[in-house]
Amino acid sequence: MARKILTEHINVPGIETFEVYRKQGGYAAVEKALKTLTPDEVVEEAKKSGIRGRGGAGFPMGMKWGFLAKPEGIPRYLVCNADESEPGTFKDHHLMKCLPHLLIEGMIVSSYALGANKSFIYVRGELMYVIRILEKAIAEAKANGFLGKNILGTGYDLELVVQSGGGAYICGEETALLESLEGKRGNPRNKPPFPAVKGLYQSPTVVNNVESIANMPWVINNGGEAYSAIGIGRSTGTKLISASGHIQKPGVYEIELGLGVEEFLNSDEYCGGIRKGHHLKALVAGGSSVPILPAHLIMKTAAGEDRLMSYESLSDGGFATGTMMGSGGFIVFDETACIVRNTWNFSRFYHHESCGQCSPCREGTGWMEKVLHRIEHGHGSMHDIDLLVDISKKIEGNTICPLGDAAAWPVASAVRHFRDEFMWHITHPHEASQPGAVYQGEMALV
Question: Where is the NADH-ubiquinone oxidoreductase 51kDa subunit iron-sulphur binding domain positioned along the sequence (predicted)?
Fold first, then answer.
């Protein structure tokens, strides 16, 4: 059995309550950090752990903390990004619902490390019941002396606020989230200045993902070096994976980074394999914003090595033959899936969720949706395939925030790896536009 850092106690009855969480060793990290460590020592443990941001970018968390400006007389803030709106990703939702005190403990430890006396958890607006769970847990923590004034008699004060988002995917981008938190429209900001210098209310701010922060209690209790010993290379620790699609056992799984993709997909401990009677066609490893890969490239790298569930192995070969760990949204497609229809569906999402601030994203996502609609519904031309590639190139790298890249990469990779399927939709428009029609090499299943 793989080591569990985040979900070890997730099935303990009543673990969402303070009393049960405390009996399982909860809030020991708060006691240790506030009573025996300085804020700089907590930051140093985060650096030693090598933990990378679990929201998608994979930037080292300790390094990010080290960038925080500390001017005299100006407040500093920690903001937890719990917006999680990426299609195919639901692990933060699961963690907050089942283990709210783990996130709160991580917020206290992390806020102490950063010198923040007021911190925020920004939750996706559709998850109102999760917000109520968090608010109840915060009230329990405060009633037991772990939040508020003079926590545990150490002189450290912390107020923790839960804020609901407006249901906008763009607010998963950290500066758009800060704009929304300030009560403004969630448009991403130009950078620099970065949030570490001028973030929430123009004050130094760190924005971290739910899973990233929830790892900190274990890091403090066991040490950063112990955390870095788990995983492989620069992919340290464990990772929550949201597994969905055509598999036997969809759900949220905690894996040690470095696990083989094939083992994760086929092991009874995890996904349990492709649904019976079918075979793997393609896979999205890190949520809808990362490149899709065909079966032969998701199991093996272009060099013939086994593909691993790690930041480095998944990206091996670049976007020509690789993908990204991203947010861990593991979406599996068997041979009954239509890649064109799936790509069109993703493009509809990104067009709808674009804030419209940047012309390449605002116009480009709309064009990609229109062209893919044409191809899927039997009205496309061969020129449309290259047009999709051209549009994606004009979006990628030309927008204020990464939503443009997130919209472009799935389309470009789908055309790169499944061009023959796009061509079949164009050369066989009547068959392709039928409900349930799927390209299968020289044949189509209807």
Answer: 340-385
